[in-house]
Amino acid sequence: MPEMMLHYGFELDRAGFCKCPLHSEKSGSFKAYPGDRGFSCFGCGAHGSVIDFVMLYFGLSFKDALVKINDDFSLGLPIGEKLDRRKQLEMQRQSFMRKREMNARKAEKERLESDYWAAFDEWKRLDDNKRNYAPKTPEEPLHPLFVEALKNIVGAEYNLSCAEIARYEYEKRDSRNP
Length: 178
Ligand SMILES: [Zn+2]
Hints:
Elements lengths: L1 H6 L9 E2 L11 E3 L6 E3 L5 E2 L1 H9 L3 H11 L6 H54 L11 H33 L2
Antiparallel strand pairs: 1-2, 2-3, 3-4
This protein binds zinc ion.
The site of zinc ion has 8 residues, from loops.
């Protein structure tokens, strides 16, 4: 930490104190601890590691602070590789999310497909009954399946249309985001 303070132009007294770079003050309350033990300001309460100092003083993110320290002190740390690792993990996460989304879409497609065919089967059953159990003469009593078909076929047709529209809307959406 003292080396870093010198590098950025802050002179420390023998006890390792200087005026705080993070707040304005007349006397030095900023203590740079030996080695890499960081800093503490007894005036403004700021404290932390060398990385924290660079983040606070230069207003950098953690990542950018690492890059700056690496550059300023010619440390030659493989920060690039570490960032690549992060990138790699991020890409893995994105690919996982894409797969999950694709599976969700596949499941939705299957559900819509199965809803459609269920609606179709029901409509076909009622339509068959309506024709097969229709009275042949005006005197013939009405078959219960014929009555049921008459009662329910409009609803079944409606359900079938809805399922068809839902399936169509899905196809339209699906073709927009491949
Ligand atoms: Zn301070």
